[in-house]
């Protein structure tokens, strides 16, 4: 399908994820190599550079979503002065970070205890879930976007819950897209990745206790 990597190339060069024109960059741009796999075709558990999280934060924070608009147009103007304008964004970021730490720790703990996966196995499962949610969830959003452009009445599909909370009062196509992407695709990917991790032997190795006579 038609697409281009101009922004991706610029970001990779700026943050030095790949050297410009390198074999690694060319392989990813041509879709002949997968950053989730190593050169021998097996799963690569090389740590993801922390700078990628910073890039993601810049992209996530720049937008016109519901929460971003509430921060920009409602909460920030209520600050006592320009010097305090950064506080809502800072607290929002700290809250997001705290929840990610708690959910991440809970997920790793449950996965390790229930499935006896090794650290490499957990990394494999989480990477596959992320890849599936972004890929298939992105496709679902693209299809729905095209559908809304062709048939604007699709935006009216939904129901009212009566809960007087933003984003919960009226559940429409956006809500169901998130449920499909994160819920259905995420759970299905978790089950499949969990099974694949065990097939690859990415489980904890129990040390054999020598027998005593």
From TrEMBL:
Protein known as: Uncharacterized protein
Segments crossing the lipid bilayer: 52-75, 81-108, 129-151, 171-191
Superkingdom of origin organism: Archaea
Keywords for this protein: Membrane, Transmembrane, Transmembrane helix
């Amino acid at each position: 399908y038609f697409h281009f990597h101009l922004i991706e190339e610029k970001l990779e060069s700026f943050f030095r994820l790949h050297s410009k024109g390198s074999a690694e960059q060319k392989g990813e741009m041509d879709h002949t190599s997968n950053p989730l796999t190593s050169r021998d075709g097996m799963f690569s558990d090389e740590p993801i550079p922390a700078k990628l999280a910073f890039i993601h934060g810049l992209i996530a924070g720049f937008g016109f979503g519901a929460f971003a608009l509430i921060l920009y147009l409602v909460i920030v103007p209520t600050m006592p002065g320009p010097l305090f304008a950064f506080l809502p964004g800072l607290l929002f970021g700290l809250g997001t970070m705290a929840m990610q730490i708690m959910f991440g720790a809970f997920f790793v703990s449950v996965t390790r205890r229930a499935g006896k996966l090794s650290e490499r196995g957990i990394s494999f499962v989480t990477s596959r879930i992320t890849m599936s949610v972004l890929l298939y969830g992105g496709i679902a959003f693209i299809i729905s976007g095209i559908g809304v452009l062709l048939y604007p009445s699709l935006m009216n599909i939904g129901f009212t819950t009566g809960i007087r909370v933003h984003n919960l009062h009226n559940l429409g196509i956006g809500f169901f897209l998130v449920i499909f992407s994160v819920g259905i695709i995420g759970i299905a990917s978790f089950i499949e990745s969990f099974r694949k991790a065990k097939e690859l032997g990415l489980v904890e190795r129990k040390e054999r206790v020598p027998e005593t006579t």
